[in-house]
Amino acid sequence: MSFLIRWLVTAVAVAAAVWLVPGIELIGGDSAWVGIAIFALILSLVDISIKPLMQLLSLPITLLTLGIFYLIMNTAMLYLAAWLANGLFGVGFWIASFGSAFVASIVISIVSAIMNTLVAE
Taking the model in full, what pTM does it have? Predict the structure, then answer.
């Protein structure tokens, strides 16, 4: 899958998470779509570069917990992407609590999976 399609799918998934999950907000008013696009770009880059290494390092814990730790890894990548987006670009992606980030990572995973099947090449 090309990176542009992955970025657009992630942007739709992040927009769904911002819309559905209480505690996940994008502060920016009229420029909300720009913030979602920038955050989705950073989340896509984190998923391509850092996430595979973290999955490899956490493989024993993931096997021990029968895959549940993978959800924690997705939440950590969401926190990392939010930290980078706020620090580098001042996007204003706000996560209220770990529970909100956990639910948002599940929503992003589900919406991404659905969108990936719809745009499968």
Answer: 0.89
